[in-house]
Amino acid sequence: MESRPESPPQGKREHRKQQDSPAIAKLRALLGKELRVTIGDGRIFLGNFACTDKELNIVMTQVYEFPVGFQDDHLVENGRFVGMLMFPWRHITAIEVHIQSLGEDAESDEYS
């Protein structure tokens, strides 16, 4: 009978000791931040960045969808809560981060 290697104890994983690349560090800094994603058909989604994958798909939580041509002053009236979404990279035309969620300008309600 062949001997199988022991699996690591549950809940404990080996962490890489390597330093993150600058691109990975930027992505980590965006985790949990509010993003505005625009897709090819013009719809806009606001939500919190949760993760991405090797194919560059984006997953967001607490997402609100806004129809084409919405006005900023009517955001709440026109928005629809959709929960969690995964955006295939090929449908994304723009991604912007909410400046307040970066902590750069507490008075600003803008995306960059």
Structure, explained:
- There is one protein chain.
- With 112 residues, this protein is an alpha+beta fold.
- The protein has a domain at 32-102: SH3 type barrels, CATH 2.30.30.100.
- It has helices spanning 22-30, 75-78, 99-102; strands spanning 34-39, 44-52, 58-66, 80-87, 92-97.
- The chain is globular.
- The mean pLDDT is 80.
- Residues 1-21 are annotated as: Disordered.
SS summary, helix count: 3
What proportion of the residues is helical, as a percent range?
10-25%
Q: Count every beta strand, where a strand is a DSSP E run of 2 or more residues.
A: 5
- Provide the spatial order of strands within the biggest beta sheet: 4-3-2-1-5
Percentage of β-strand residues: 25-35%
- Round the Cα radius of gyration to an integer and report it: 19 Å
Name the CATH class of the domain at 32-102: Mainly Beta
Which class do the helix and strand fractions yield?
A: alpha+beta
Mean pLDDT: 80
CATH architectural arrangement of the domain at 32-102 = Roll
What form results from the Cα inertia axes? globular
Helix-strand string: HEEEHEEH
What key phrases describe this protein's structure?
112 residues, alpha+beta, SH3 type barrels, five-stranded antiparallel beta sheet, 3 helices, 5 strands, LSMD1_Sm, snRNP_SmB/NAA38-like
Short note summarizing the structure:
By secondary structure, the chain is α+β, with helices and mostly antiparallel strands. The chain has helices spanning 22-30, 75-78, 99-102; strands at 34-39, 44-52, 58-66, 80-87, 92-97.
